[in-house]
Amino acid sequence: MNQITLRHRLLLLTLLPSMLIAIALVSYFTLSGIRALEGELRAKGMATVRYLAPISEYGIIAGQIESLHGLAQAAVQESGIKATIITNQKGRAIAVSGRVSLGSEQLRQALKEPMLVAETDQWVAFGAPVRRSLNEMDALFESSDNANPAQPEVIGHVFIEFDKTDLANRQNELLQRGLLIVLVGLLILAGLAIAIADNLAKPVLRLVHAVREMSSGRLDTRVSTISTGEIGVLEQGFNDMASHIEEAQQSLQSRIEEATSELSYQARHDPLTGLLNRREFEHQLEKMLDNVRAGSEECCVLFIDLDRFKPVNDTCGHLAGDELLRQISQLFQGRLRGEDTLARLGGDEFGIILANCSSQRARQVAEDICALTAAYRFIWQDKVFAIGASIGLTPVSRRVRNINEILAAGDAACYNAKESGRNQVCEQDALNTQERRQETNTWANRIAAALADDRLQIEAVPLSPLQDPAMNDNVVELTARLLEPGHPPIALSALIDAAERYDLAPSIDLHFLEIAIKALARANSRNRRLRCLVPLSGSSLGRREVIDYIARSLTSLQITGEGLCLIFSEGSSSHQSSRAIQFSQQVQALGCQIGLSDFGGGLSSFSQLRSIAPSYVKLSRSLTRNLSGNRASTALLRAIQEITADQRIDSIADGVDESASIEQLRNIGITYAQGNAIAPCEPFEVWLEGVVMRPTQQPPMESSLLPRNPGAA
Amino acid sequence: MQWHRCSGNIDAVRRFILYFFLSLITLSPVAWAGSITLLLSENSGPYGEFASTLGEVLDSARWKISRIGKADNIEPSGQRSDLVISVGSEAFQRALAMGGTTPIIATLLPRQSYEKIIAQAGPQRARFTAIYLDHPPARQASFLRHLLPDLKRVGMLFSSETRGVASQYRQTFKNAGLILDSEDSDTPSTLLPAINTLLPRVEALLAIPDTTIYKRDNIKPILVTSYRHQRPVIAFSAPFVSAGALAALHTTPAQIARQTADLINNMGTTLPPPVPPSQFAITINSNVAEALGLSIPDEATIRRAMLAESEAR
Predict the structure, then answer these.
(1) Which of B133, B215, B225 sits opposite A137 (nearest CB)?
(2) Do residues A107 and A157 touch, judged by C-beta distance below 8 A?
(3) CATH of domain B137-250+280-312
(4) CB contacts < 8 Å between A and B, how many?
(5) I want to staple B91 with a disulfide (CB 3.0 to 4.6 A). Which of A107, A243, A312, B41 is the partner?
(6) Spans of all domains in chain B
(7) Least CA distance to B207: which residue of chain A?
(8) Chain A residues with CB inside 8 Å of B120's CB?
């Protein structure tokens, strides 16, 4: 039943009842026709005998056998009449025509009226009495005896036999005609039914087809709305639905496209600054490289690493860092042309592709960016940060094989700039620098490996007292240098950003502390006076394990913390002031001392003197540089000197490379000085053995007052 | 009321005066008046026609007619009436069966029936007479000659009933210039053979009332046979003409009624002998004439000619 389609059902529905009705009607009419034929035959037979009887009357009365024979023969000529018999009063046949089937018994019977006398399958016989006809005579002449006889006298009979084969033939013909009519009627009906079914099924099939098309994804499928009535409503409804679906699909598609483009934008852009990200930068770089190779003008690439970005992040949180990056990116963008490409490569690293730009012009742009960055002040709440930009410049020529060369060269150049004292531009050709790039990728590994292999060489920067030469304490600041085979040593200042980024700075700090405490223990065992200034990174500030380590080490070596002075930068302490204060108090509780480096570089320097109560302040290089021509710096130095002296805080000027400066510093009243003009850097062990632990007692004043010959040590 | 009480006396006085006056005026014979019993074979048809015509024609002042139909019982008063008129054969039989002495006039019956009934009834006390339906042979001959002027040989069928008048007919026809040829038939089986032998010899068949030959179930074969022989049948009644005879000389019941009234009015103390009808009517079937190719004059012409001939004698 499920396989029957709509068309078949309609056909069945229309054909079956009409077929049944047609068959019933035609059979009814055929049967009644057959019956009517039989009735007709009977009527004809009765009529024939009824007519024949009076006609035969005179022949019988007159005994005219010939005329009766003629009559009988004439009757037999009639269609269907098989035999005619005329009998006399005694039942004897006096005239016969045709083949008689009736028996003599039947011929002798006395009939009262015309009737059917016998019937078989082949024939049917009718008979009628022949009566003497009565003429109305004048009653006056009737004899009174035999007046009004009841019934006219029967003087004979006529019989007629009909052949029924003719009837059967006609009946058959009727039957065949009926069947033919049924057949023709059914054919016409079938045609009509098919037409109706098609008329009804075709629109539905069109709809079905359209639905299939639709479900197979062709949303622009429509049906032609040519039907009327319910089907028309369906077609219209389908079209409306299809339009809605198509519209919905299109809007969905457009939304998907929007989302895709959004994703693609996000995949290519840095969400924070809206600049291109590293991947897109590399992609652009590749395109640019292709263009250069294809013969366009020379291009340059700048790699920028922000200096002193981490403190902002650490002290003010990531929100501040993010804001700084946004502002910086706008700052950079302002200096660039429309055709240049600025990208944030990650963290505080930026990349710039300067299209159609010579290396001279590129250097100019880079230096402009340096200057802009140096002059820029980031203000977050009540804090002001000065940052810098170390820029690596890499010209791109057609000899460059791939962008990795450019990236490596740029990275190396940037590193060089950073190492060379930050906020400057270094240029590095894209060739032969691939190795460096790879190493940069493993900064963390390199520092970790150096710590593990003890390749971090601790160096001593001795301090020389300027005011009181009688002070016989050996004061030294610890610094470090990364020794790697095949490479020049890397200064801690260049290292510290990476170390802080990869959270390795505390390890370096602990290493410093270990060295310093051991040295103090050794000096103590020999009754030598030693003071070690140990620089701590901002990340170690407030770390509990640092305090714990110091306490543990001092206890285990049975020494006081008197000679240990922990130095952290004024910037980091001011940004994490509460932690710094707490840390200072804990350290001072252990008997150790606190020093602030880079003092005077920020605005909050003086407030820290009270809250942290340092024993030393290490003056910012911006104050001590160019002392001779800078009265403002001199005045500031004096002010600081007066305030620190008042609070019994020793001031230290570092980076004193010229001996002329020594006198000026002394005049201002600075307590200590360090730098190449005082004493060169040397490995801490060497310095310890040579200066502190040497057996011969020498006035320390000499060694600190006068510039020593490195060769003498 | 007064009038009713005295009606018997007044009637008697009136009758006496009437007799007296009539006797004075006519002297002889004396005019006769009284009550008449009209005995009908049937109430309707020719009998009714006869009765109504008689009632119209007779002077109701002189004659009181009481009708007795077929189903009515004959009242005793009928026996006391002055005259009985029987209409039809059956009525005549009943009139005779009543007995009594009242004179009877039998009407509307053929002569053979009249004679046969009298013969059957036996001796009677009453006097009776009749007005036959049968026309006299001379009138028949006259009719034939005027109907078919070229006719020479006339055929007739006689049975035992009519054989008695055969010679009279033959003589009369001979006088009129016609030759009568005849055959006898007393049974139905001999009828058609007799006709078949007679008709080739004659030019026409004259039928006279004969209950053996001309009866209801025989008329058709006779007519058919005569038609087959292309011979016209001259019959004696209008229905016979309708059935297929060429023409008929007959008398209507009204004519008989008038003749009866005349007879009553002119009747003296004695009854006249039976008479044939004094008046006659002619009926012609023009279809039959056409079918036989005969050109015949119309009824009025023939009647006038016949009347003129009878007056001339």
Answers:
(1) B215
(2) yes
(3) 3.40.50.2300
(4) 81
(5) B41
(6) 1-31, 33-133+254-266, 137-250+280-312
(7) A141
(8) none
Query: A 61-80 residues with CB below 8 A of B?
Result: 61-63
Position B42 confidence tier, pLDDT thresholds 50, 70, 90: confident
Q: Give percent of chain A above pLDDT 90.
A: 6
Reported as a single tens digit per residue, the pLDDT across A326-347 is 999 998 988 888 888 899 988 8
What does the alpha-carbon distance between residue A427 and residue A438 come to, in Å, rounded to a whole number? 18
User: CB contact, 8 Å: B281 with chain A?
Assistant: no
Looking at CA atoms only, how far is residue A57 from chain B in angstroms? Answer: 9
Q: What is the 3-state secondary structure (H, E, C) of A53-105?
A: HHHHHHHHHHCCHHHHHHHHHHHHHCCCEEEEEEEECCCCEEEEEECCCCCHH
pLDDT tens track for A230-270: 888 888 888 898 899 889 989 998 998 998 888 888 888 88
What CATH number is given for A1-133+153-213 in this structure?
3.30.450.20
DSSP assignment of B218-253 equals HHHHHHHHHHHTT--EEESSHHHHHHT-SEEEE--H
Q: Regarding the domain delimited by A278-440, which CATH topology (the fold level of the hierarchy) does it fall under? A: Alpha-Beta Plaits (3.30.70)
Q: Give phi and psi for A672, each to the nearest 5.
A: -125, 160
Would you say residue A429 has pLDDT above 60?
yes
A696 to chain B, any CB pair closer than 8 A? The answer is no
Give the chain A residue whose CA is nearest to the CA of B211. A143
Which residue in A58, A134, A140 is closest to B216 by CB distance?
A134
Query: B215–A138: do the CB atoms touch at under 8 Å?
Result: no
Q: Angle between the B299-312 and B137-147 helix axes, to the nearest 10 degrees?
A: 130
For B22-74, the DSSP string reads HHHHH-SSPP--EEEEEEES-SSHHHHHHHHHHHHHS-TTTEEEEEE-SSSPP
Q: Answer whether B33-133+254-266 and B137-250+280-312 agree in fold.
A: yes
Write down the ipTM of this complex: 0.71
Q: What is the mean pLDDT of residues A186-213?
A: 85
Asked if B239 and A135 come within 8 Å (Cβ–Cβ), the reply is: yes
- Among A191-195, A500-504, A563-567, B164-168, the range scoring the smallest mean pLDDT is A500-504
Domain A456-613+674-705: give its CATH architecture: Alpha-Beta Barrel (3.20)
**Fold exhibited by the domain B33-133+254-266:** Rossmann fold (3.40.50)
A1-133+153-213 and A456-613+674-705: same fold? no
- Quick check: B186 pLDDT over 70? yes
So what's the pLDDT on residue A704?
A: 41
Reported as a pLDDT band with limits 50, 70 and 90, residue A575 is: low
C-beta separation of B112 from B158 below 8 A: no
Exposed/middle/buried for A115, CB within 10 Å: 0-12, 13-18, 19+? Answer: middle
pLDDT greater than 90 at residue B195? yes
Nearest to A141 among B41, B110, B224 (CB): B110
Q: What's this model's pTM, rounded to 2 decimal places?
A: 0.48
Q: Which residue has the higher pLDDT, A441 or A418?
A: A418
Is residue B5 exposed (0-12), middle (13-18) or buried (19+ Cβ within 10 Å)?
exposed
For residue B192, give the nearest of A62, A134, A153 by CB distance: A62
Q: Does A141 touch chain B (CB under 8 A)?
A: yes
Q: Given pLDDT bands bounded at 50, 70 and 90, which one contains residue A148?
A: low
**Whose CA is closest to A380, among A423, A422, A325?**
A325
Domain positions in chain A: 1-133+153-213, 219-268, 278-440, 456-613+674-705
Q: In angstroms, what separates the C-alpha of B87 from chain A's closest C-alpha?
A: 9
E strands, A602-677, are: 616-619, 650-653, 672-673
Residue-level pLDDT at A160:
92
Residue A534 has pLDDT above 70, yes or no: yes
